Amino acid sequence: MSKMFFKGRIDARQNFVKAGYNTKRDIKLGTDELPLNLVVQTAERQTEVEAILADTKLVANIEVNADKEENIRDLDGMLNKPKTTVFEKTPNRNDPCSCGSGKKYKKCCA
């Protein structure tokens, strides 16, 4: 085998993709392509969950089964997403101080 025809490990990327990473990043949970899977115990609870889904425009497969434990964790996760914390930027050394003294930040509060 010559160096000219060596292409390297062709299947290495395929093994990496199958290693448990989310390959469907463009498809979001709660859409037609990837619906939520929910389990409720009564028909009344099913109507409540369907009303919540209609308000939030999410899609779900709801299973009514009295024998199984209620499982709506995916829905709770979609409704209660954590918000990103944003910190105020500290001023640079030569910017005016944020306390309002009129001095440079390096001379006042630094």
Summarize the structure.
With 110 residues, this protein is α+β, with helices and mostly antiparallel strands.
Notes on the protein architecture:
The chain has 110 residues and is α+β, with helices and mostly antiparallel strands. Helix content is 28%, strand content 9%. It has four helices and two strands; from the N terminus they run αβαβαα. Strands 1-2 form a two-stranded parallel ribbon. Strand 1 (36-40), helix 2 (43-56) and strand 2 (60-64) form a beta-alpha-beta unit. The radius of gyration is 27 Å and the shape is flat. 4% of the residues are buried.
Topology:
Blueprint: H1 12-17, E1 36-40, H2 43-56, E2 60-64, H3 73-79, H4 105-108
Parallel strand pairs: 1-2
